[in-house]
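Hi everyone,

Forwarding the result from last night's run.
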Amino acid sequence: MRAFLKKEWLEAVRTGRFWLLLLIFILMGIMNPAMAKLTPWMMEIMSDSLADAGFMLTAVTIDAMTSWTQFYKNIPLGFVIFVLLNSGSFTAEYQKGTLIPVVTKGLARRKIAAAKALQLEALWTVLYVLCFCITYGYNEYFWGNDIVQSPLLGAICFWLFGIWTLALMVLFSTVSRNNIQVLLGTGAAAFGVYALGLFPKLSPLLPAKLMDGMALLNGAAEPTDYMAAIAAAGGTAMLAIGLGAVCFERKEL
């Protein structure tokens, strides 16, 4: 399994997938405070043209909350790119037939599935933490983060949503033949949970609640409001990984 994990990491590095994702998440981490810092300058540039059109601009207050708002707007896009680039983790192996030799030589299928799942979850964790720390550091330097409440829990919530979605992707990867099917299955499941979250009584119980980490930072929600969603995401993620391992054991390679 250690050898297979090493193979997964080397493949991510040699294909350039890791470096591309690293660049994207670093840029997003820098862009969040940069956009907040540049907002007054952009508003000043636009003020004359808006005044000619009959619009009056008022003074804009920029603080750490502005930058964190950008963070929670941008990080979903980064996660979508992450999923798109890694959706073929399993299916590329099926199409090339590269899993057959290692299975016939005795490597247990559950270890292959575990290695791939662990590599995806670890890569997401490293990139997400890097993006968060860059934003947090710049915010602390420019404005201080005292204005925000529970920034760490808010970050953990979206990270866990990513873990939950990747667990679904692993499950669909074990039953699909190509990455289009993986993306459709994962997207449909995530969208279904999001749609159910539009019902107020169901929203606190669903993993989609974890996407709204900004409500924790501005004090619109309490940490206890997220406990049920955290438990649901953690439980269903472990269930998805378990079901994926079972399906992979029975899959024809």
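The first helix runs from residue 2 to 14.

Cheers,
N.
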